[in-house]
C-alpha cells in the first residue's frame, strides 16, 4: 500500500509540474494593476507594485470556491509562507503560521500576527488569540495578508491579516439578491448559509446567516458553529457610513494530541476527553467615511465587542494514595489530617508528601476502588472590548513630489473577568473523567496542598496553592496608537515609503481569589509598555515586467494578561485554567529586513522574497512536565525567522479552456538565538537545554504548494492541488535531540458544474490518497514508573493494580483522513 501511494503521489506531482511546460496562448488580458489597503482602516487603496511589503490576497471568487474548507484551510492551501497546525483536531480551531509567526485560538501560543475585520482589531484582549470559527465566512469578500508593517499596531510582528466583508452599500439599486449554499461531507459535515442583499439608490442592507456542524473524524470531537452578520449602509452627499451587527455561537470539541502508541493502533482514538470550548461573541461596529473637497478622505470606526468563553477539559492528575508503601507514614498522615483512609497526595519527593486539600480546607481521603485519578478543568471568561480609530488620507505635493499621506490614531480598551477551578474525578480506561463527590454529595474542588514529612509533627502549618488550584482574575488593558505613512515617488519608477507607529499599552491585573490560606504569590500588578516602531521601504519598477522592493521595519507586542499571570517558574499553571503569579515580562520587539523581486513573462507571474526577522525578548511557553498543558511564560532572549519564498502563477488557454496554475515554495529557518536551561521532566534524555541555533518546535523548514484548475467549459471546471511540508520538532524538545515528525504530502481535488444561471453543483475530496500524517507533536508524561493513564486500545482491562498505558512520551496531532464533500449553490 505504501509503494502504491508513493507511485500515485509521484504521478500526481508530475502532472501538476508538467502543466507548466504547456505552451501559453493568451485569450484574455490579465489586469496588471491590483490595489490593496496599507493601514488598519479601509481607506485609500494603493497599487500593490508601490508597496515595499510582501502581500497576498484571496478574493471573493477564491472564497466562494472553498467547498468543505474553512478560511484557515484556504489560507494554508493557497498562500506562500502560510502553514496550518491542527493542534486541537477540530476544523474550527486551527493555528495559522506565517513565516514562523502565529495566529491561533489557544492560550499558550506566542501570537505574532495582527488580524482586522473591516478595520476592527479582532485579536482577543486577554491572550491576543484568534477565534477563527467566529469570523463570518459567508460574508467575506477579501482577505489581504501583508508582511510585517508597524502601522497595523501590536502583534504585527510577522504580518497582518485584513478581512473585508460584503456590505449593504454593495447592493445599491438592487431589488433583492438571495444566495443559498448547502454542503455535506465526511464525518457528518453539514454546512449551510443564506445571504440576502437589497437597496435603493442611497442605502442598502446585507444579511448573512450560517450554520455549520462537524461530527468529527475522531472520537468525541463534534462541533457546531452558528453565525449572524448584518450590515446596513447609507450614502450622503459627501460621506457614507455603515453599521454592523455580528453574533456567533460555537460549541467545539477538540481533543488534541494523542500518544504515538495509541495512534498506531487506532488514529480515530483520542487521549483524555472531553476538551470542550463554548464561545459566544457579539460585535457592534460602525464605519464612516468623509470625502473632502481637496480629494482627501477621513475614515472613522468605533466598535463594541463581547466574548463569553467557557471551557471543560479532562486531564490526568498526578495523584495517588499517600505513603502507599510506608504503613507508619500512612498512619501518621491519617491521624494528622483526620481522613478515613490515607489522604491523596500529589508529587512525593522521598518522605515529603504533598497532600491535596479541597475547597473547605480538608484533606481528601483516598478511595481504593479508583485506579487513576483525573482532573476536570473548568473555566469561564468574559472579555469586553471597545474602541475606535480615525485616519486622514491626503494626496499632496511637497518639494515637487506627490505624497500619499495617512495619519491615524486608535484606542482599544479591554476588560476581562476570568475564573477557573479544577475538580477531582476518576479517569477511566476510555480516558474520560467523571466527577467524584464529597460526603455532602457535592463536587470536590482542589484548592491547595499541604506538605507533610510522614513523621510525627511533620505536618506543615500552612497550605500552598500547588499547580491545580482555583483562579479568579480580572484584567484591564488599554492600548493607544498613533501612526503615519508617507508614500511618495522619487521618480517615475521609484517609490519610497516611510512610516512609524507609537504604541502605548497599560496592563493591570487584579487577583480576586479568596482562599482558606495565606498566599505568597498573587496576580495583582500594573505594567506599562511604550514603543515607537519605524519602517522604511523602496520599490523600483525597472520596466513593465520587472520590479524590486526592499524594506526595514520594526514592530512590537506587549505581554498579554494571560502571559503576565502565568510567568512564575515556581508556580506553573495549567492552560487555560490556573493563573497564580504576576512577575514582569518584557515586551517583544521585532526588527527585520525584506528584499523582493517580481515580474511577468507572458501570462506567467513570478515573485521571490528574502526575509530576516529577529525577535528580542521573545515570549514562549515553557512546559514543566506536570501535564501536556502545564508550564509558564518566559522571555527567551532572541529568536530568529529568516527564509526565502518563491511563487509562480500562470493563467492561459491551453486549447481546452482557461488553465490556472499556481506554485509556491517557502524555506524557513526559525531558531533560538539565545541559550536557555529548560525543565526536562518529560524528555527521554532528561535534558532539554537550548543552544543558539536550535530550531523552534512546530515550524516546518520546507513547504511546497502547487495547484491546477482547468476550465472545460463556461459551466464545468475541475482542480487538483498538493501541499508538501517537512517535519517539525516536538514541543518539549526545544533542544532538537529527538526525531522530527515525518514529512507529508497531501492532495485535494475539487470540481464545480454550473447547471444554470441560478444553480451550481460542486464537489471536493480532501486528502485524496488518504495520507497518514501529523502536523505537530508534544512531549507528554508517559513513564513506566508512574501511575499510567489506562488505555483500553492498548490492552487495559479496566481492573487490576497496574494500568496499561503509553510508555512513549511522544504525543502527535494526526491529520484528517480522506473526506468527500458535495454541495449546491442557489442564486435567486
Q: Layout of helices and strands, plus pairs?
A:
Layout: H1 2-18, E1 35-36, E2 46-47, E3 55-58, H2 60-64, H3 71-78, E4 82-85, E5 95-98, E6 101-103, E7 113-117, E8 120-121, E9 140-147, E10 159-165, E11 174-185, E12 189-199, E13 203-214, E14 223-235, E15 239-253, E16 258-259, H4 260-265, E17 275-291, E18 297-316, E19 320-321, H5 327-337, E20 344-345, E21 353-358, E22 373-398, E23 401-427, E24 433-435, E25 445-452, E26 471-489, E27 494-511, E28 525-543, E29 546-557, H6 561-564, E30 573-574, E31 588-601, E32 604-616, E33 619-623, E34 630-635, E35 639-653, E36 658-672, E37 702-711, E38 716-725, E39 744-754, E40 759-766, E41 774-779, E42 810-814, E43 819-827
Parallel strand pairs: 7-10
Antiparallel strand pairs: 1-2, 3-9, 4-5, 5-6, 7-8, 9-10, 11-12, 11-43, 12-13, 13-14, 14-15, 15-17, 16-42, 17-18, 18-22, 19-20, 21-25, 22-23, 23-24, 23-25, 23-26, 26-27, 27-28, 28-29, 29-31, 30-34, 31-32, 32-35, 33-34, 35-36, 36-37, 37-38, 38-39, 39-40, 40-43, 41-42
